[in-house]
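Chain A, query sequence.
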Amino acid sequence: MNVSRRLWIATAAGALLLGPGALGCSSTPAPKTATVEPGDMPEGGDWTGVYYSELYGYLHLVHDGNGGNGVEGRWIRPVKDRWGELHGTATGDLIKFTWTEHTIGAIGPNASRSGRGYFKYQRPEGENVDDRLVGEIGRNKDEVGEPWEAIKQRNMLPDLQSIGGSGASEISGGDWDTDNQESGEPEPPAEPEAEPPSL
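Chain A, predicted structure.
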């Protein structure tokens, strides 16, 4: 009896010293997911549109209206230092998506960050109100973490191509690599005047 008890104590102590990996457990936490369920869209509600947030700027969303449920979106921060894109699936009044945000002018591993997120489409009570998105984004495999609320803008159509990409013209504003350069032959330099004008 004493021998088996000592053996059990030694085994338990060894497992504690080796840590959770010795018991087949992983120390990596499970991804955080949103506890939200899809519901019905408000009457006349449409995911396609432009939504404004003070933190994230203008978010342009396009919903595949041909019987599909895919959603594409792009946003640019108000100070124009970062832009992002999302790809998701809409089910009723809920979108779940993956996202990537790029730092303009940056290269290397810190030039972008990514994760997952969700939006719920909401319509506040009252007359003549603006629809809104309420949700969160998380880093890496997390779906929650940072809140994101945005108000749908009236009379604005989304234009995904107006946001993002790369190239010298977007960073510096120049047009040296585009078709916007002037055409024709350069003019020869003007001859200097023979004498400076008298004062």
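The CA atoms of residues 83 and 164 lie 6 Å apart. The chain has two helices and eight strands.
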